[in-house]
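Researcher: Go.
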Amino acid sequence: MDMKKKQDTDRQKIFYIVCLFFLLGTAGGAAAANLLPMEEQGEIMLFLQQMEEGQAVPSFGRILWKYLKYVLLIWLGGWMQMGLFLSGAVYLFCSASLGFTAAMLLVTYGGRGIVLVAGLLLPQNLLLIPAYVLMMWAALYYMFHWQEAEGKRGLKRERRRKQTEYCILFGGAVLLLAGASGVEFLLLSF
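Model: Structure:
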């Protein structure tokens, strides 16, 4: 198998694994919400209902920072040898919190929860999830492929090229986050 085909296969495998872990994290978060004792579920339900009544709309910058810090941590993990643990933990937290939030809205509001999830969580997550998946895929791929060139000059040049690609992918993820933050800001403003 030539080097190009091997890289393509590696990229696909990493992408499938990243997507699988996002689904597992989301399912785990939903399961955790449903396995909470009734007393704790009641406290969270009360909190959600109180938040609905007297909620001030956060600024665009505050919403962007809420998402950017997670993508930044995933990206930083890609620069470290053992960054898999940092990136993986942050990534699983993001997916689990999405599943937990959706499940708690459904438990709290019943049928109306479906409308809330579809109207308040889904639109921005159509951009957030690709940003998280893209960044986790890039972090894993580049973490495992930083040292793939031969010779001192080739190694330096190839490493610099990969670092540039990695930074460009981070910029793409930030653009997706900005779009998601704008959508959330608009949804909360109305």
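Model: The chain has a mean pLDDT of 89.
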